[in-house]
């Protein structure tokens, strides 16, 4: 049994449809539980006050914003190499979700930055990188929308995704070089010496799990929708040809 | 029979927008021969020519032609208004790595116009210039999509003469999609019988995965 | 490739070719800047290198959508595609022609326009150097964008949306090197990065552009 079997649209829908409600349910439980735990059952930080608690939305959304692009990159490569329609449609389906995650990360960052740095927006490398990432998402989505033929659109957006990934990484380094920034370093890596305090660590993990499940549920659902749109188009064309 | 210089098509199917439009095409065109494609609008003439030219991949089957021997010309002229007639032709000759032979100007009755900017030519003159392009690129297999659109009768005859006396006589090949009789005694391929069955077609194209 | 390059250059300088439009745009933007930020020469001198870089970048954007669109509209593109020149070479020739008609004149015009923004002594050299190193990357990246959108309605607008994010690293390193150089700071690192981006783009992006052209010609 090969993983590529799920590349068949019908098989994909049949397999994922029952999973989607569970993913949504799991996401809801994790996010609500994690947020409740984080908001009400953790102490306020010395340095940050209660504003630290926005971390429970900010960090997971920022992680998913980047991971969504990584997923699109993998899906684009799969489409270019193996020509599985589901893969291209999954990349298309993930883009608006990734853009939304980027916007959430930017918004929560601004809300957090206001009391911490005294400003809503600073041209900090991380914030700037996310802004640029948002622009890449916009361009990618716009290209999908502009092309009528779905296979051609899949090909062109896949190439754009590959080239865009290289330039997104370049931008990240360029922005780092350009401004050293206010943002604290990543505090969530497993081996960092100065890690986030344990009291925040566990609820944060729950929230991250919730966001991953939410992303999964949304992408599966949206991919299913895209597949149905393509199916509708195929049926319409079949009907047209039968008449002609 | 056609050897290595001819154009040979075996079991070819071509698709437009991911749906097969023609299937089961097999034919061979030997050097010095032309093939006229007939069929109603939408029959797949342009699609077939683009596949023969290698611009689009075949949906099934094979196209055999010597390397670097084909050229595809759509019914648009592809000439630049800001360049003179000679400059236009010289560009195409250079692009295809050929020397420019001014004799082509006589074949298409362009000698008196040779220094005029192409933008000042009439529609018919532009068409003649567009066709003269095909004479300077030195390709043996010409794939022509409606080459005689907006040509008057005399110019059609002139084009047919060039095709017969210069191109085909020199061992060239032409596959021409046209509604206008060119006066060539070439075989005609009616695409009607090769039209893909709409019911079967749906289950082969890119839509098939979704049905 | 030479034939295509020469033809595009000739077309650009003939009437209606649009050569000089981007230069005029560059000039106008630079003239407008002091109206926006005020005439204080100290401020202008400080923001000058960056402003000149951004204006040059926007000016290169203007002529991009004509690159393949004209050949696509008049039907020349399929006959170019069946020529012995591979589409990668076509993309490179187009990028080169674009740089010679846009990037190079902008680089040369930047120094005299710097006077308007009250640039100081060393700033001129750094500005011209960084633009000379950076504008080829802008042309190649833009050519990729143009190949991506050939044949699309409203392609020009979409082209800007696709290309501008790709321009970010080039702009940052280019403007940063110009600024640091102008202020007498060490500018070697951004200069090397800028050269690296240009070299990498020149080496790799023609292949991406050729691939998307092939897809668009199907």
From TrEMBL, chain A:
Keyword Transmembrane: yes
Keywords: Cell inner membrane, Cell membrane, Cytochrome c-type biogenesis, Membrane, Transmembrane, Transmembrane helix, Transport
Transmembrane segments: 20-41, 61-81, 93-115, 127-147, 159-179, 199-221
Localisation: Cell inner membrane; Membrane
InterPro entries: Cyt_c_assembly (IPR002541), Cyt_c_biogenesis_CcmC (IPR003557), Cyt_c_biogenesis_CcsA/CcmC (IPR045062)
Every Cytochrome c assembly protein domain range: 13-183
Pfam families named among the record's database cross-references: Cytochrom_C_asm
Topology in the lipid bilayer: Multi-pass membrane protein
Keyword Transport in record: yes
Function: Required for the export of heme to the periplasm for the biogenesis of c-type cytochromes.
Record-linked PANTHER family: CYTOCHROME B_B6 PROTEIN-RELATED (PTHR30071:SF1), HEME EXPORTER PROTEIN C (PTHR30071)
Family, similarity comment: Belongs to the CcmC/CycZ/HelC family.
Record's protein name: Heme exporter protein C
Annotated source species: Rubellimicrobium aerolatum
Automatic annotation (TrEMBL), chain B:
PROSITE patterns: ABC_TRANSPORTER_2
Keyword Translocase carried by entry: yes
Keyword Cytoplasm: no
Coiled coil residues, start to end: none
Domain ABC transporter stretches: 7-210
InterPro entries, alphabetized: AAA+_ATPase, ABC_transporter-like_ATP-bd, ABC_transptr_haem_export_CcmA, P-loop_NTPase
Key words of the record: ATP-binding, Cytochrome c-type biogenesis, Membrane, Nucleotide-binding, Translocase, Transport
GO MF assignments: ATP binding
PANTHER family tied to this protein: ABC TRANSPORTER I FAMILY MEMBER 1 (PTHR43499:SF1)
Stored NCBIfam families: ccmA
Protein name, per record: Heme ABC exporter ATP-binding protein CcmA
Taxonomic lineage from the root: Bacteria, Pseudomonadati, Pseudomonadota, Alphaproteobacteria, Rhodobacterales
Gene expressing this chain: ccmA
UniProtKB/TrEMBL annotation, chain C:
Compartments, record wording: Cell inner membrane
Membrane topology: Multi-pass membrane protein
Keyword vocabulary terms for this entry: Cell inner membrane, Cell membrane, Cytochrome c-type biogenesis, Membrane, Transmembrane, Transmembrane helix, Transport
Transmembrane segments: 12-37, 43-64, 96-117, 123-150, 157-178, 190-213
Major location (coarse): membrane
NCBIfam families named among the record's database cross-references: ccmB (TIGR01190)
One protein family per Pfam: CcmB
Family: Belongs to the CcmB/CycW/HelB family.
Function: Required for the export of heme to the periplasm for the biogenesis of c-type cytochromes.
Keyword Repressor: no
Keyword Transmembrane helix carried by entry: yes
Name listed for the protein in its UniProt record: Heme exporter protein B
Gene name tied to this protein: ccmB
